[in-house]
């Protein structure tokens, strides 16, 4: 196996504001393999979407990538010129945004938008691009694509529009798709369809998918591995069955404990007290320590680095042998 | 779509009928027209004669109906001062005004959109800030002052351009045009700038703020994520979305440009309808004033209709709502 499709190494993203530099992403590393779906979860503001935007170079000023490397199939893309990274966007990395209602330009037919994207990235003629556009619409499950291609976005329902958005992301057969909350704006029944579609496309085409969401149900359903983000850092990353069933990090445990289940014995849903710190007021040490039920002295001064003790990396002092006194019950 | 146009045309007829009532009432309330036609020492019998020949002794509804029928047929009556049919006077003057309005609008739209797009995209550049400042001047300086300043600079001091008149014109059928001679084109420059400056600054400011608005939308972000070129994003996707308000403004302002070219025409002694109107006001030539009122109303109504139809060309969402009227 060669290099992973996407490899993010020690990524740092900062926002320079009048009140100082805010660290939106602080030392984040992860890999996504071919055909793999990596779910990225966390509360709002944890840095999930910023990570996605950073990968395709869409961080707008005053934000900037302050450090680290982003490699796409072994090639560095974080230091490319604007013109080079533009050619990566859409061609090698496709992106899907949260709200399909506003992602499409209302003044052009979906066909025009597809053809424009296809022709930007390939040498196809107009006729060729149109044929490919029809094929793509068929592939994402739009009925009667040869007729619907000349419809305007407002003539589609929300779920259908999200399929069009996915087709747009697939235009140039990208190696990686970043899906930023692709189902949040959709009805629950439509969500399942869109997720199934994404999963099928990833499997069939071998496309790596980075699935950013705060919906644990979607993650459990779709992802192969999960990264739990908190305050701009990865708290825990590992296979989905491990992280969802037996989370190690206290924050991940809290997050999973807040998911209602239909089966099994009935118990109260747990909630994590307090809320995530603002970027301007991240506490020293472990950023989760004020809300953590297991926090001890070291957590308040020493920032935990990822340690791979339990098969998958977790950034928590509880699992560091040099300091661990408490063994956390992970019986869920 | 056809039903929509028919409905709008019927509304337009209603508006014109109302304006007809107003312009007709001008004859009744702005003094006795007979007094303006005859001289002071005309005997009373002769005055009655004139009154009867003009139909002014008939009952008011009869006069109004006759007025409307004549107006619809393009017969606006006879000017008191020129003793000529007003339709001839207007036909003679209209090309001058329309050509001026056309040039002023082209100037305003072209420069307004260019400067608006530029200052929307390069918000921080020196040129954008300069445009913003200049646009303040354009919006706040009165037209006659701009005209006089331009005349002073380019006609008096530099001597590059003529300060008044249309220059040499060429007659094409009944239309006299200044487009075909050099002096005619030269003569168009200063009045066009004077007349179009206000609209230009308005268009520039609207395009700029719309651009800023549109560039923040999700579909622009998504267009960037699709890897489209900056050029395609700015001019294909963003600019087209700013055009709806621009069409509205240009449409409404085009009516104003034609109707209120009075000041510019006066400053430049431009032989158009506006100048005719000013002379009519000075001489209490009510038939001309009434005809001008009707004509301006007609122009406004037609432009608004054209604007409504243009919307649907630009924005497909309006097309489908119009297709199924509620």
Q: Care to describe what's here?
A:
The complex is a heterodimer of chains A (332) and B (326). Chain A is an alpha/beta fold and 332 residues long. Chain A is globular. Chain A has 12 helices and 12 strands. Chain A has helices at residues 48-55, 82-88, 100-103, 110-121, 126-139, 145-148, 158-170, 188-205, 216-222, 240-245, 250-257, 297-301, and strands spanning 6-17, 20-32, 37-41, 63-72, 75-76, 93-96, 176-180, 208-212, 225-230, 233-239, 307-310, 312-314. A 6-stranded mixed β-sheet of chain A has the order 6-7-8-3-9-10, sandwiched between helices. In chain A, strands 2-1-4-5 form a 4-stranded antiparallel β-sheet, with helices on one face. In chain A, strands 11-12 form a two-stranded antiparallel sheet. The two termini of chain A are 34 Å apart. Chain A has a domain at 97-171. Chain A is 32% helix and 23% strand. By secondary structure, chain B is mainly α. Chain B has a domain at 92-314: MetI-like fold. In chain B, 76% of the residues lie in helices and 2% in strands. Chain B contains 14 helices and 2 strands, in the order αααααααββααααααα. Chain B has helices spanning 2-29, 33-37, 44-53, 60-72, 86-121, 126-140, 143-157, 182-215, 218-225, 230-259, 262-267, 273-282, 286-314, 316-323, and strands spanning 170-172, 175-177. Chain B has a two-stranded antiparallel ribbon. The interface between A and B is medium-sized, with 32 and 23 residues.
């Amino acid at each position: 196996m060669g290099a992973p499709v996407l490899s993010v190494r020690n990524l740092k993203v900062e926002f320079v504001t009048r009140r100082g530099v805010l660290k939106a992403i602080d030392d984040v590393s992860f890999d996504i393999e071919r055909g793999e779906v990596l779910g990225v979860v966390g509360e709002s503001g944890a840095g999930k979407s910023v990570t996605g935007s950073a990968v395709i170079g869409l961080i707008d000023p005053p934000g900037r990538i302050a450090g680290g490397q982003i490699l796409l199939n072994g090639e560095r893309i974080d230091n490319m010129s604007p013109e080079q990274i533009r050619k990566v966007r859409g061609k090698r990395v496709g992106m899907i945004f949260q709200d399909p209602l506003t992602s499409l330009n209302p003044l052009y037919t979906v066909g025009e938008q597809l053809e424009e994207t296809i022709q930007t990235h390939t040498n196809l003629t107009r006729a060729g691009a149109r044929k490919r556009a029809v094929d793509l619409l068929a592939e994402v499950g739009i009925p009667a694509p040869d007729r619907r291609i000349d419809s305007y976005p407002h003539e589609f329902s929300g779920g259908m529009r999200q399929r069009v958005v996915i087709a747009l992301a697939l235009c140039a057969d990208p190696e990686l798709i970043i899906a930023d909350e692709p189902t949040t704006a959709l009805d629950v029944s439509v969500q399942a369809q869109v997720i199934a579609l994404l999963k099928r496309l990833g499997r069939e085409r071998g496309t790596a998918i980075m699935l950013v969401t705060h919906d644990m149900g979607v993650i459990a359903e779709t992802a192969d591995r999960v990264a739990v983000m908190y305050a701009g850092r990865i708290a825990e990353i590992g296979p989905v069955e491990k992280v969802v069933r037996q989370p190690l990090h206290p924050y991940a445990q809290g997050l999973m404990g807040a998911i209602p289940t239909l089966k099994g014995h009935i118990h109260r849903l747990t909630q994590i007290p307090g809320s995530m710190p603002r970027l301007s007021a991240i506490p020293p040490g472990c950023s989760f320590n004020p809300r953590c039920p297991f926090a001890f002295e070291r957590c308040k001064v020493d920032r935990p680095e990822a340690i791979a003790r339990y098969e998958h990396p977790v950034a928590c002092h509880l699992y560091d042998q040099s300091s661990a006194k408490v063994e956390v019950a992970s019986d869920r | 779509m056809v039903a929509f146009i028919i409905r709008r045309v019927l509304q337009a007829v209603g508006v014109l009928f109302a304006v007809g009532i107003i312009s007709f009432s001008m004859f009744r309330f702005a003094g006795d027209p007979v007094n303006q036609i005859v001289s002071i020492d005309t005997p009373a019998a002769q005055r009655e004669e004139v009154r009867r020949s003009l139909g002014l002794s008939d009952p008011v509804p009869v006069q109004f109906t006759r007025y409307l029928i004549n107006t619809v047929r393009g017969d606006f009556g006879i000017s008191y001062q020129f003793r000529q049919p007003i339709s001839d006077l207007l036909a003679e003057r209209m090309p001058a005004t329309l050509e001026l309005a056309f040039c002023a609008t082209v100037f305003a739209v072209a420069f307004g959109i260019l400067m608006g797009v530029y200052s929307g995209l390069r918000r921080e550049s020196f040129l954008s800030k300069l445009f913003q400042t200049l646009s303040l001047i354009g919006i706040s300086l009165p037209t006659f002052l701009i005209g006089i300043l331009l005349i002073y600079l380019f006609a008096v001091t530099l001597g590059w351009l003529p300060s008044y008149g249309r220059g040499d014109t060429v007659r094409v059928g009944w239309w006299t045009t200044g487009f075909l001679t050099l002096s005619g084109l030269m003569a168009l420059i200063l009045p066009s700038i004077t007349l179009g400056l206000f609209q230009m600054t308005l268009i520039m400011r609207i395009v700029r703020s719309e651009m800023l608005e549109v560039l923040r939308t999700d579909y622009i972000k998504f267009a960037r994520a699709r890897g489209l070129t900056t050029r395609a994003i700015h001019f294909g996707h963003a600019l087209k979305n700013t055009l709806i308000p621009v069409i509205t403004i240009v449409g409404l302002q085009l009516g104003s440009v034609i109707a209120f070219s009075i000041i510019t025409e006066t400053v430049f002694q431009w032989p158009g309808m506006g100048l005719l109107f000013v002379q009519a006001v000075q001489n209490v030539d009510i038939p001309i004033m009434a005809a001008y009122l009707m004509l301006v109303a007609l122009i406004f109504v037609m432009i608004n209709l054209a604007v409504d139809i243009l919307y649907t060309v630009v924005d497909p969402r309006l097309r489908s709502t119009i297709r199924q009227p509620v």
